[in-house]
Every structure is written in C-alpha cells, then in structure tokens.
Amino acid sequence: MSNNPIFVLDANVFIQAARQYYAFDLVPCFWDILKRYAQKGYICTIDFVKREIVTNKDQLANWFQNEFSNYCFDAMRDGEVVKAYREIIKWVSKNPQFKDEAKRDFASGADGWVIAYAMVHNCVVVTHERYDPNIKRKVPIPNVCREFDVSYIDTFDMMRKLEMKIC
Fold first, then answer.
1. Could you tell me if 126 and 154 are in contact, meaning their C-beta atoms sit under 8 angstroms apart?
2. Which in 3, 14, 58, 90 has the greatest CB count within 10 A?
3. Do residues 34 and 43 touch, judged by C-beta distance below 8 A?
4. Residue 76 has what pLDDT?
5. CA distance 147 to 161
6. What is the pTM of this model?
7. For the residues of the chain, what is the DSSP string, one character each?
8. Residue 145 falls in which region: left (phi positive, over 0), alpha (psi -120 to 50) or beta
9. Cα(103)–Cα(122) distance, rounded to whole angstroms?
C-alpha cells in the first residue's frame, strides 16, 4: 500500500455513497474508514468539493464539516493549481464538442479544480463519472482527465487499490 498515489475525491464519491450504497445508517464504518485513510495521507479532496457538500445541510454535510474538513486543500491558494485550472478551462471553452451550457456548468463547479489539483500534485481523481467521447450536454471529468493525462478511477477501484475493508 505504500506505493499508492494520493486519491483526490470528487463530490459525487461522497454524495452517492451517503445517499445510496454506504448510507450512514447502513454502513457507518465506511465513513470512519474514509477518515482513517485521509489521516494516513492516502485520500483528500479540495475546498470546492467541500462547498458543494456542505451547502446541503444534511448528515453528509455535518459529517464532512466535523470529520473531513482537515483533508480539504485550498486549491486557489496554490498558484500551480490555478495555472492548471486555467489550461483546463481554456481547453473546455474551445472544445466544440460540448454545448455552451455544459461549459458554463463545468466552469462554475468543482470538477475542473479537482482535475487541476490532481494534475499538479500527481494524484488520482476518484469519480463516478464515465468517459464519453460523444457527450455534448456535460463535460465529464474523465474526458478532461484523458486530455490532460490525469489518472482517474471510481470509488470501488480506489478501495481495492488501498485494500480497504468495510467492517
């Protein structure tokens, strides 16, 4: 496990787990495990993801505020991340594949910042989004990751790579 990269988590990793397969009332140990791996330095996220999560004022937001806030990095304070983010936004905005609304949504959310952080810090992005070479209505994280040679996986592959065991 010591050769594993750092995994930077997209908001959908937290949100889908909380609302579906690892709900707090069904699998509370999942959330303890996430925190434990973050404490060990294997998992992190960024401030923009935190903002997306805590605006909901639900159980996930409370857990995130109280248990995971220390593992969020301030992406805008890192000049290299800001530079990478600008490159990403420039590519997205000039890409004729995506509709203008998709480009605006991407630019206003955390996804570009997650990718930029991973790009600069050699992390692996963890997301449930899938690569789609023909999509127009959304800018998927994997499409951008492929363009910028950033690795990405889903939650379950991350858990396997980190040898996480749920309860």
1. yes
2. 14
3. yes
4. 86
5. 24
6. 0.95
7. -TT---EEE-HHHHHHHHHTTT-TTT-HHHHHHHHHHHHTTSEEEEHHHHHHHHTT-SHHHHHIIIIIGGGEE-GGG-HHHHHHHHHHHHHHHH-TTS-HHHHHHHHHSSHHHHHHHHHHHT-EEE-S----TT--S---HHHHHHHTT--EE-HHHHHHHTT----
8. alpha
9. 25
With respect to CATH, is domain 7-161 assigned 3.40.50.1110? no
Q: Are 30 and 59 in contact (CB under 8 A)?
A: no
pLDDT band, very low/low/confident/very high, at 4 (cuts 50, 70, 90)? confident
Phi, psi for 27 (deg, rounded to 5): -135, 65
Report pLDDT digits (tens) over 6-47. 999 999 999 999 999 999 999 999 999 999 999 999 999 999
Q: Looking at the predicted structure, is the pLDDT value of residue 149 above 80?
A: yes
